[in-house]
Design goal:
With about 625 residues, the chain is an alpha+beta fold. It contains 22 helices and 22 strands. It folds into 4 domains: about 220 residues, Heat Shock Protein 90; about 140 residues, Ribosomal Protein S5, domain 2 (2-Layer Sandwich); about 100 residues, Rossmann fold, CATH 3.40.50; about 120 residues, Up-down Bundle (Four Helix Bundle (Hemerythrin (Met), subunit A)). About 35% of the residues lie in helices and about 20% in strands. A hairpin with a 7-residue loop joins strand 4 and strand 5. Helix 9 crosses helix 10, helix 9 runs parallel beside helix 12 and helix 21 crosses helix 22. The N and C termini lie far apart (about 95 Å).
């Protein structure tokens, strides 16, 4: 056999191993769950590949995972007869983390949440929590020669690889346990861990048991070895559902809710769908793999099958087992498959029903869901027009009446609390809750007791292009010109007998000063404490949308604002009395710049704005 070749771990793996070895996991026994889960996946992959290539079985169809203990050598061995690995695969799988965003992930777990490690899918490295050295021996099922490969590392930044003789296909992992981890050499401890985490793995997990009196060794099965989703719901405990979730997702947290269903008829399938308690760290990564595990007639086919879920439900985890799809189904076939399309529709409705039930019956849990996944669900109105009404009912918002940045108000509750003369659902979009809640556009609404939705998530402006009405009430941005709002303002003005300062001469002067800087100028009675605001016309792009386009590097057309002036404001009254045209020019420009600063959060020429303020302060002639 060849000599060992030494390799250096990639820097990200070095960092990961350092975190592992220094007790990244709070619960050390998790390492066994991770290794058994990997072994189970390897067996599933061999079964799938053997559908089209039966020769891969190599007379080996009695699949299982074996665990043996050697107290003399202080070793724990986990072996499987799955797909196995060749030399290149073992280097790629055990020496590199080939995932985008790895560096960001490492930074996150160093700063914040160590349990994120489970979501990253690097369970093998958890071996080093309890081991001073790890040896992996593997032979790929694709080779008929009795030649395998051995990988060895002490977790110190490097590893060795060499060719070995290996009669059986599959993988064997030998853990040389640290002296303080000898509890994992007790058979009862291993049995308890397997019962706790891996009872429903679909292949037998066996442990070697040696009877000192009889001098006989036997392999005893220590798990049920029956796929959990194939059992009747009444025979499955809550604890078993939770542990199965952790097995298929590598998540440390319990799921928030789940739904287990068997559907018969033309399209027969079983689904087990989970909604996590916490969002994946990389849920916004475009390369993030998501979707369900796919089985066909209880045969594993593939992971992360995104074809059965719309993108706005990418946080859902679980599996689907179909009796109608062909065993040789591929991602390409699923793309245009009628059965897959029908399953997608059915599963989408099932998940939305789960969320509806949660929102109706458990407000506390729904708040947890919304805080974790609300931003993702907001993609729904644009992506899923069929279920738009259901999605709309699930949305939650902040508003001026809830008076909190926490998004708790449903659209149904908003409509129930509308005042009699209110025709539309009013909202405002902004960069933050604070800027939305302090906008001068809200002054009239606060006075009239009309609630306004405060939308400050980046996705909100885009979402409102598709969320146009709810319960036959249209949505209306209060930073746009609107006839229904003008009607409310007019009625309110008439009730208060407010006499509008009719000064066509003043408005004409303002238009002459501003020229093409604005689209139009007129007085308004929507303001109380603010001298002036700018609005966009009905068909104009909003300020917030322009910001989104700009942030995405796209060219933004110039927005021509409508300039509204509050005739009842003391500053405006003083400005109207100015006779000096030069001074009037500066004050009108200052009013516009103030309004633009409030609306946009910035100015094209802030230095000019400051100079104008200083000039007027020095002048003091108003």
């Amino acid at each position: 056999m060849e000599k060992k070749e030494k390799y250096i771990f990639k820097s990200e793996v070095k960092q990961l191993l350092h975190l592992m070895i220094h007790s990244l996991y709070s619960n050390k026994e998790i390492f066994l769950r991770e290794l058994i889960s990997n072994a189970s996946d390897a067996i599933d992959k061999l079964r799938f590949k053997a559908i089209s290539s039966p020769e891969l079985y190599q007379n080996n169809t009695n699949f299982g995972i074996n665990i043996s203990i050697d107290k003399k050598d202080n070793t724990l061995t986990i072996s499987d007869n799955g797909i196995g690995m060749n030399r290149q695969e073992i280097i790629e799988n055990l020496g590199t983390i080939a995932k985008s965003g790895t560096k960001e992930f490492i930074d996150l777990i160093e700063k914040k949440d160590h349990q994120l490690i489970g979501q990253f899918g690097v369970g093998f490295y958890s071996s080093f929590i309890v081991s001073s050295k790890v040896i992996v021996r593997s032979r790929s099922a694709t080779t008929h020669k009795e030649i395998g490969v051995q990988w060895e590392s002490s977790g110190n930044g490097e590893y060795t690889v060499k060719e070995i003789i290996k009669k059986e296909t599959g993988t064997e992992i030998v853990l040389f346990l640290k002296s303080e981890e000898k509890e994992f050499l007790d058979t009862w401890k291993i049995r308890n861990i397997v019962n706790k985490y891996s009872d429903h793995i679909s292949v037998p997990v066996k442990i070697f048991n040696y009877d000192e009196k009889k001098k006989i060794g036997t392999w005893d099965q220590i798990n049920k070895a029956q796929a959990l989703w194939t059992l009747k719901k009444n025979n499955i405990t809550e604890k078993e559902y939770k542990e199965f979730y952790k097995h298929i997702t590598h998540d440390f947290n319990d799921p928030l809710i789940w739904s287990h269903n068997h559907v018969e008829g033309n399209n027969e399938y079983t689904s087990l769908l989970y909604i996590p308690e916490k969002a994946n760290w990389d849920i916004w990564n475009r390369e993030n793999k998501h979707g369900l595990k796919l089985y066909v007639k209880r045969v594993y086919i593939m992971d992360n099958t995104e074809h059965f879920l719309p993108n706005y439900l990418r946080f859902v985890r679980g599996l689907i087992d179909s009796n109608n799809l062909p065993l040789n189904v591929s991602r390409e076939i699923l793309q245009d498959n009628r059965i897959a399309h029908n399953l997608r529709q059915a599963l989408t409705k099932r998940i939305l029903q789960m969320l509806e039930s949660l929102a109706k019956n458990d407000d506390k849990k729904y708040k947890i869901f919304w805080n974790q996944f609300g931003l993702v669900l907001k993609e729904g109105p644009a992506e899923d027009t069929v279920n738009k009404i259901t999605i709309s009912n699930l949305l939650r918002f902040s508003s001026i009446k809830t008076n909190s940045p926490e998004q708790t108000l449903s659209l149904n509750d908003y409509v129930k609390n509308m005042i009699p003369e209110q025709e539309k659902i009013y909202y405002i979009t902004s960069d933050s809750y604070l800027s939305a809640n302090s906008s001068p556009h809200l002054e009239f609404f606060r006075k009239k007791g009309i609630d306004v939705l405060l939308l400050s998530d980046r996705i909100d402006e885009w979402m409102m292009n598709y969320l146009t009405e709810f319960q036959e009430k249209k949505f209306q941005s209060i930073s746009k010109i609107d006839k229904s709002l003008n009607k409310l303002i007019k009625e309110d003005k008439n009730k208060e007998n407010c006499s509008e300062i009719s000064s066509e001469i003043f408005i004409k002067k303002v238009k002459e000063i501003l020229k093409d800087q604005v689209k139009d100028v007129h007085f308004t009675h929507r303001l109380i404490d603010t001298p002036a605001v700018v609005l966009t016309d009905v068909n104009e792009m909003t300020t917030q949308m322009a910001k989104l386009f700009s942030a995405a590097g796209q060219k933004v057309p110039q927005i021509k604002y409508i300039f509204e002036i509050n005739p009842n404001h003391i500053l405006v009254k003083k400005i109207m009395s100015i006779k000096n045209d030069i001074l009037l020019y500066d004050w009108i420009q200052l009013l516009l710049e103030q309004a633009l600063l409030i609306e946009k959060g910035n100015l094209d020429n802030p230095n000019q704005f400051i100079n104008r303020i200083n000039k007027l302060l020095i002048n003091q002639e108003v």
